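User:
I study polymers; will you set down one protein's sequence and backbone structure tokens?

Assistant:
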Amino acid sequence: MQVPYLRTTEPEDPTARRHRNRRVFRRLVALTALGLLFLLVAESAPDGRLPLTAGSGGDPDAGHPRWKRAFLASVDHPDAPPEGANDWDCEPAARHPRPVVLVHGTYANAYSGWSALSPLLRAEGYCVFAGNFGAPRGDVVKGRAAIPESAEEVARFVDRVLDRTGARQVDLVGHSQGGGILPRYYLKFEGGTDPGDPGRNKVHHLIGIAPANHGSTVSGLATLARHLGILAPAAEFGGQALADQTIGSPVNRRLDAGGDTMPGVRYTTLVTRWDRIVTPYGRQYLHPGPVTGQVTNITVQDVCPQDRTGHMGSPYDPVVLRLVNNALDPATARRPDCGTAPAAGSG
């Protein structure tokens, strides 16, 4: 007789047990790889100070001049824009008729990514806007979603900026994912450009800081994950954006088919040889397509040889900030002061 409240369990099939153990092992390895990635990111920002920003009141530490400090500050308000950004009543001036839209990178947010550049650009008279992409509201670590999903968010944000400001086009400035694969996907597949009539493009210029353009080995971590078969578990825990940014991913293959650029758009890449996240660093450069040749690839160390800023520190490097300003407004371009460049750092 079977007692209703007693359950009998069948012995687990050895093959099923091996598959389950293999899945558990792969997930543990994936979590370990993600931990190593976080350590790599955490150590990649230099400790160099920035020049005073607008509104700093003379305090060199005001305005969160270091990436790590800005990220920690964003924990309490993960959806807040950086200083100077998202004034929805801003009217573009004749000198700067295009609003600047800032696009953060993977595992960052608008506040942590742009607390140096945003107030500087606002002080120069730009209308500046910075969105949060690739994660639900309330999450401090953003930029995790699949690239096509985040590109839809970028499209909606740019449309809102154009609608509110009355501008015809914007300039995009992005870092890492936000300077490469994400805005390029938006330009090509989510309405950022009109290849049949480039005069209808919504974007005039894309400036990528340490841009993730053609996939990365992440200093070998992504290559190891691929060989171990743990890219899928890593994406499950860390977000699909990680897998999308690896070399040869389906998203990268689709994006790169037919060339790197879109007609009518200017492109500038700002690349540091000390990058340890988007590796090899040469994969960050863009190559002009058959229709447009408006590509400028700049290696930071060709401008300031002693600059050792890394991947995460790039949006906080005074040399990079000057180069961004030069790209946005060539008429006022000037050589960066190499004496302000970080003398130490990695990543």
Remarks:
- Residues 1-9, 19-65 have pLDDT under 50 and may be disordered.
- Residues 79-215+248-340 form a domain with the Rossmann fold fold (CATH 3.40.50.1820).
- The longest helix spans residues 14-42.
